[in-house]
């Protein structure tokens, strides 16, 4: 039994987790990927939560111990009998037998909230869009796909804020990469879909050498890609920014340099399907159709493949 590579994608409700997850699964080949959403580990259904006055974001509202057990089983390549929570009905359905594929992507609200859970991942991503943009995405998704009115969504966001602050946002510190899509102009929610991306790269995993990559671009990349050194939650980190107005040529250049030592990733770039990968829209993120998204997906995939080389 071989052990899968496990990627975590954690972030608040409607932060773009599903969009990113689907894009990465598409790159790796859906047949090689097991997708798990930790919403399935909710302890109470929608009616019970309303009665108890507890939000889905609270650790007590989730079977984190069982989630943790399942992560450890998946980590060693073993199957799980996963609970199923339906966002349509707000109740639970029959559990599902899941055998991990070569890659496992675990997305959800509280994936990094315990030490044992954190230990299960090879790569940990945290999604942190500006709160204003997240609210726009949440209203859009929950009205279009989950049958809520805009007023209900806004009210719910307000009700959940204390739990977001206490339980969701602190998990940022445990991630290897923080991904923030943001509008170039602060006062806009979106700018015709041309969002920039800011990637915080912590030195907890080996990243591609972006200094070298930008230099190898011979001046062609500077107008759309920047690398800096800042502090995030008190710790020094590299920050890579890619503008929404990056061109296909610039993105291809970065991809080719980045993938030069990774034959599998290179073969993906050579097929030149990356612009399309940026267009994989999930339930939240139709607005994420962009090269920054395509590049973000590729960088995370790079890490998963690197983990295969390093740890297997
Ligand atoms: C948000 C979160 C989900 C969570 C859900 C529960 O939408 O993004 O992860 O499962 O809240 O609330 P619900 O709308 O299903 O009652």
Automatic annotation (TrEMBL):
Catalyses: D-ribulose 5-phosphate + ATP = D-ribulose 1,5-bisphosphate + ADP + H(+)
Q: What is its EC number?
A: 2.7.1.19
Provide the alphabetized UniProt keywords: ATP-binding, Calvin cycle, Kinase, Nucleotide-binding, Photosynthesis, Transferase
Which Pfam families does the annotation name?
Answer: PRK
The chain positions of domain Phosphoribulokinase/uridine kinase read: 6-184
Q: Name one GO biological process term.
A: reductive pentose-phosphate cycle
A GO MF annotation of the entry reads: phosphoribulokinase activity
Q: In which pathway does it act?
A: Carbohydrate biosynthesis; Calvin cycle
Q: Which domain of life is it from?
A: Bacteria
CDD domains given in the database record: PRK
Which family does this protein fall into? Belongs to the phosphoribulokinase family.
Cite the NCBIfam families for this sequence. PRK07429.1 (NF005655)
Protein's recorded name:
Phosphoribulokinase
Name the species this protein comes from.
Nostoc azollae (strain 0708) (Anabaena azollae (strain 0708))
């Amino acid at each position: 039994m071989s052990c899968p590579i496990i990627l975590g994608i954690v972030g608040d409700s409607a932060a773009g987790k599903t969009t990113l997850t689907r894009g990465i699964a598409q790159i790796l080949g859906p047949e090689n990927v097991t997708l798990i959403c930790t919403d399935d580990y909710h302890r109470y259904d929608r009616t019970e939560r309303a009665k108890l006055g507890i939000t889905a974001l609270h650790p007590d509202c989730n079977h984190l111990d069982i989630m943790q057990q399942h992560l450890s089983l998946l980590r060693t390549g073993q199957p799980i009998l996963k609970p199923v929570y339906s966002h349509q009905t707000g109740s639970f359905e029959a559990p599902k037998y899941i055998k991990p594929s070569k890659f496992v992507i675990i997305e959800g609200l509280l994936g990094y909230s315990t030490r044992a859970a954190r230990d299960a991942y090879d790569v940990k991503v945290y999604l942190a869009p500006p709160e204003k943009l997240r609210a726009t995405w949440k209203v859009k998704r929950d009205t279009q796909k989950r049958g809520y009115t805009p007023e209900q969504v806004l009210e719910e966001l307000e009700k959940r804020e204390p739990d977001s602050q206490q339980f969701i946002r602190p998990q940022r510190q445990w991630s290897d990469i923080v991904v923030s899509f943001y509008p170039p102009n602060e006062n806009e929610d979106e700018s015709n879909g041309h969002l920039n991306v800011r990637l915080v790269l912590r030195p907890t995993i080996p990243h591609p050498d972006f200094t070298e990559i930008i230099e190898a671009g011979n001046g062609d990349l500077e107008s759309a890609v920047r690398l800096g050194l800042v502090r995030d939650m008190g710790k020094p980190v590299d920050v890579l920014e890619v503008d929404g107005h990056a061109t296909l040529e610039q993105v291809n250049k970065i991809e080719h340099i980045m993938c030069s030592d990774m034959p599998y990733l290179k073969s993906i770039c050579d097929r030149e399907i990356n612009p399309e990968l940026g267009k994989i829209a999930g339930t939240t993120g139709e607005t994420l159709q962009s090269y920054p998204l395509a590049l973000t997906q590729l960088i995370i995939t790079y890490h998963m493949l690197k983990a295969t080389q390093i740890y297997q």
